[in-house]
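Form 7-S
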Amino acid sequence: MAKTSAEKVVLAYSGGLDTSVILPWLKETYGYQVVAFAAELGQGDELKGIQKKALTTGAVQCIIRDLRKEFVEDFLWPMLKSGAIYENGYLLGTSIARPLIAKHQVEIAHKTGASAVAHGATGKGNDQVRFELTYMALDPALKIVAPWKDPNFTLTSREAAVEYAKKHKVPIDQTKKKIYSRDRNLWHISHEGADLEDPWNQPQDHLFVISRPVSKTPNRPTYVEIGFKEGTPVKLDGRAIPGVKLIETLNQIGGLHGVGQVDLVENRLVGMKSRGVYETPGGTILTTAHRALEMLTLDRDTMHYKQQAALKYAELVYYGQWFSALRQSLDAFINVTQQTVTGTVRLKLFKGQATLAGVKSPKSLYNPKLASFTMGQEYNSTDATGFIRLFGLPMKVSGIISRQGEKTPSGKRK
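Output:
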């Protein structure tokens, strides 16, 4: 890479260990003018003092944008309606945030005259793909700077990064003794590294940040009611509530009861397995409620096909293909399916679980008379005789052929 003293680069800056050392490294190694961009996505107090930190460690400018409303309405709600869950456990909290951050990086690059965008994702992880696919989709002319894949980048371990930070007087919270890689936003917090790298190690109680260990949760349950309109959650316990506030409130209530803790060994896009522990209390409550309402309001064929689409949607989010034609096409299908997903779901939160405690909808397809074991005029059971004969005909023919090929004990064919 050539010396670029006059060039500007927009760095996705979280203030965590990796980007804290990458910022001065970009300036020191290549002479970049670094514009640090920090996205407020609901990560608590992590952005406190981040502007001062960025400027004192070499940034020419630090831009902070509150993206929580956009995050919820344009990213989380579409994903929630899709039913996307990666490998039966991961609710995609980190995956869904990266395209939004990268989108705003591109916008800031245009606004500030930067010719490049940069991220601090490692060469082993999924985030590098999520960032770079978004850059390529939104402005393929921008140069992509990825220090972890730069042969001159020697800070290839978190221990080395800690040493660099100390040497350059970059303030960090991590130490060599205990280094967890964490990513937090409104939807979740993830934990990787340190003792979690061995799947045999049980997550310790001190690991959890936004939820209590199940052993320390209350001995009495809490009930919540979530109101949906066309697949979007709009009410909590009967009162209208904005999306950001809804998730924040459910994180507090669900976290108190240890809801949404997942310990997962997942298959990364880059080909390896990784172990992560996730806390997604509010997201788990909403996902459980949304699924329950769909059970009541979607017909069989639509529901089954949507389940297939949800698997693909989860892959698209996980793989960083948010700005793909296929994801947009799936959204068109999903939005049609959500036209009837209106109603109220009651959940019981207790000892780490969000359990369905009731569901109702003006669009319900559930007919108590049809579902009853009592035979009535609305269902003629004799119709089932011909239906089963026709439905089972291929299996019957196969059975006939199979028995014709069987031999008797005497060795003769039947």
